[in-house]
């Protein structure tokens, strides 16, 4: 059995407060859950550890340590790479093996939202807040009981804790809103790195997660847009869009040195059991390809679903490049609740052990 860990980097902090990368650093890996050794890892030339698997089980806690430095670092393994990336316990992605600096002042905090009415839904990063008053838009079709947890960090983004459950919290109740239609969409995710096909096999260019509870009401609309280019040749190029492993559209083109666009609309229906979709794929100077249907048997309220942009060519690597992609969420019931005047007071000036509380 294999389970994934999240990629991370390694450094130490010197007495001046500067981070010093540690390329080639060998660290030990211990499975805390099973009390067994998983061997060693070595950081690459950029002091990074790429995501990979251990011979372990999903949910196992692993601890990384260095024989040369005092600190340790933990992660929770996932059944898939996406699960390891989405786990809120894997928020911290830097293993600081030693910190010789004096404590820095906390100026901001990551604010996490926990749905107390749906404990199976994973916590979500709601916003990054600063000292003082913060207005945070939040909308719900039904009354929600929420817990907000705050992890403070300094100007170098050093977090006060890597364990969400240990972070200070406060609970709020947000009343339901309705009517009017959403005036502005919410950016759900974005990709802005060039990713080209590297082989002649079907490859994932962008992979994102639509979290459980993203679609609240029937009529909520998620619009995904991807852009990219084709290589300067007449090879057959194939681009697909997949929802939870199901191929919704396959677009084939021989266009050379052209820009392409893929637009996908996903609308909730049947009380969260269905998604209706419409798709249009266009390449400069080529007749658009369109598709429309619906997905049934879903559970949008309680299950996460992945969306993937994939591509291949049977002739040569690098024939298809994705340039960017994003997803905008439109609510059907309109209105925004403002979690108003969330005043954050620092109970200590030090990041190590810094806590935040609600005074609003």
Q: What's the arrangement of secondary structure elements?
A:
Layout: E1 3-5, E2 8-13, E3 19-21, E4 26-31, E5 36-42, E6 48-49, E7 52-54, E8 61-65, E9 72-76, H1 81-86, E10 94-99, E11 108-115, E12 124-130, E13 136-138, E14 144-153, E15 169-174, E16 186-191, E17 195-196, E18 203-210, E19 221-230, E20 237-243, E21 246-253, E22 259-269, E23 274-283, E24 286-295, E25 305-313, E26 320-330, E27 337-339, E28 344-346, E29 356-358
Parallel strand pairs: 2-10
Antiparallel strand pairs: 1-7, 2-3, 2-6, 4-5, 4-8, 8-9, 11-12, 11-14, 13-27, 14-15, 16-26, 17-26, 18-25, 19-22, 19-26, 20-21, 20-25, 22-23, 23-24, 28-29
Model description:
This protein is mostly beta strands and 360 residues long. The protein has 3 domains: 3-99, Immunoglobulin-like; 108-177 and 337-358, no CATH class; 186-330, Jelly Rolls (Sandwich). The protein is 2% helix and 50% strand. The chain has 1 helix and 29 strands. It is globular.
**CATH architecture assignment of the largest domain:** Sandwich
Share in helix: under 10%
Largest sheet: 7 strands, antiparallel
Q: Treating each run of at least 4 consecutive H or I residues as one helix, how many helices?
A: 1
Range of strand content:
over 45%
Mean pLDDT: 82
Class of the largest domain in CATH?
Answer: Mainly Beta
Intertermini distance: 49 Å
Radius of gyration in whole Å, from Cα? 23 Å
Beta strand count: 29
Helix-strand pattern: EEEEEEEEEHEEEEEEEEEEEEEEEEEEEE
Identify low-pLDDT runs: 178-183, 334-360
- Tally of structural domains: 3
Structural class of the secondary elements?
mainly beta
Shape, please? globular
**CATH topology-level name of the largest domain:** Jelly Rolls
């Amino acid at each position: 059995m294999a389970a994934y860990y999240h990629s991370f980097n390694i450094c130490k902090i010197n007495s001046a407060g500067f981070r010093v990368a540690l390329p080639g650093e060998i660290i030990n890996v211990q499975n805390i859950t099973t009390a067994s050794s998983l061997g060693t890892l070595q950081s690459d030339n950029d002091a990074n550890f790429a995501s990979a698997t251990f011979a372990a089980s999903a949910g196992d806690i692993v601890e990384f340590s260095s024989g040369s430095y005092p600190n340790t670092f933990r992660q929770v393994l996932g059944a898939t790479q996406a699960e390891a990336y989405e786990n809120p316990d894997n928020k911290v992605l830097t293993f600081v093996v030693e910190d010789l600096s004096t404590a820095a002042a906390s100026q901001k905090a990551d604010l996490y939202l926990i749905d107390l009415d749906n404990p199976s839904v994973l916590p979500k990063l709601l916003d990054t807040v600063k000292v003082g008053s913060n207005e945070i838009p939040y909308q719900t079709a039904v009354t929600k009981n929420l817990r907000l947890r705050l992890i403070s960090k300094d100007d170098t983004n050093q977090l006060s804790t890597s364990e969400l459950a240990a972070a200070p919290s406060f609970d709020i109740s947000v009343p339901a809103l309705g009517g009017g239609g959403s005036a502005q969409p919410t950016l759900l995710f974005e990709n802005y790195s060039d990713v080209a096909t590297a082989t002649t096999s079907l490859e994932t260019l962008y992979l994102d997660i639509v979290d459980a509870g993203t679609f609240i009401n029937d009529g909520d609309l998620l619009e995904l847009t991807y852009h990219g280019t084709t290589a300067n040749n007449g090879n057959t190029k194939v681009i697909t869009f997949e929802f939870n492993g199901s191929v919704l559209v396959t677009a084939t083109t021989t266009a050379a040195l052209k820009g392409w666009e893929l637009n996908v609309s996903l609308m909730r229906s049947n009380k969260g059991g269905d998604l209706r979709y419409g798709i249009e794929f266009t390449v400069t100077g080529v007749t658009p390809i369109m598709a429309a249907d619906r997905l049934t048997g879903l559970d949008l309220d309680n299950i996460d679903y992945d969306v993937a942009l994939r591509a291949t060519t049977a002739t040569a690597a690098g024939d298809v490049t994705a340039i960017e992609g994003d997803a905008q969420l439109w609510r059907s019931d309109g209105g925004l609740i403002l979690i108003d005047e969330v005043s954050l007071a620092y109970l200590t000036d030090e990041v190590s052990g810094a806590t935040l509380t609600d005074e609003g």
